[in-house]
Amino acid sequence: MATSSLKKSFVISSKKEADAFAKLFTQEPQPLREIEFSIVSKEEMAKIIHATLGKTK
Fold first, then answer.
1. Do the Cβ atoms of 48 and 40 come closer than 8 Å?
2. Phi, psi at 10, each rounded to 5°
3. Is the distance from CB of 18 to CB of 25 less than 8 angstroms?
4. At 44, phi and psi to the nearest 5?
5. What is residue 23's DSSP assignment?
6. What is the largest CA-CA distance in the chain?
7. Which residue of 19, 29, 48, 52 has the smallest Cβ count within 10 Å?
8. Up-side HSE of residue 4: CA atoms within 13 Å toward CB?
9. How far apart are CA 36 and CA 42, in angstroms?
């Protein structure tokens, strides 16, 4: 049975690259911005899907 690996490797070859890589872990993460949303009923979603599927290019 075949298996796959998602392992990735990379090489840091200079102090400049090492400093940039380390900086990724020392910065404060930006807060997520709030987004507006609304709940769509099953009937409304069905209308959207049918309207989209009904269009031909």
1. yes
2. -150, 165
3. no
4. -65, -40
5. H
6. 58
7. 29
8. 1
9. 20
